[in-house]
Amino acid sequence: MFLSFNKNNLASILFLGIFFILLQLSIPKLFFINGFEIGFDFLLIFLTILLFSYENYKIILLAFVFGLIQDYIVSVEQIGIISFIKSFSIFLLGIIKKYQFIWSKSVKFFVIFLIGFFHFSVYYFFIFNEPYFFIFYISIIHSFLYFILIFIINRFFFNSKLI
Length: 163
What we know:
Elements: H1 7-26, E1 31-33, E2 36-38, H2 42-51, H3 56-74, H4 81-98, H5 105-127, H6 132-156
Antiparallel strand pairs: 1-2
């Protein structure tokens, strides 16, 4: 399953990345809480799946590029925040991959939830000017959605062999 990038893989990964960016922009959000839109972060989910399939450093670079594209779409005022958060979150998820034979599945999924919480809390902290409790609450909900989708994808599409 650990493949290296060749021209065909790179083209398909870039195509899928653009598809997931467009999917994230076009799919309606699930919740609206005080003006906050909460939905799936398809790009982070896609990068997480790629991380467990390819080499870490390539996916971290890809996360930075996709995060920069998302920066230009979401908030031009803070260019680089989303790209940094995405690439750092993918780096942290790479630690799970590095120790995948030492940690149990429950520990790995708990760490995935915590990294998702870190990702969304830092994102909301920089993008929105709201009280910390509200950012914490929104981040928990968003992390739970991220965790559930990763769990479902791992279970049904990869027969629990991805993570």
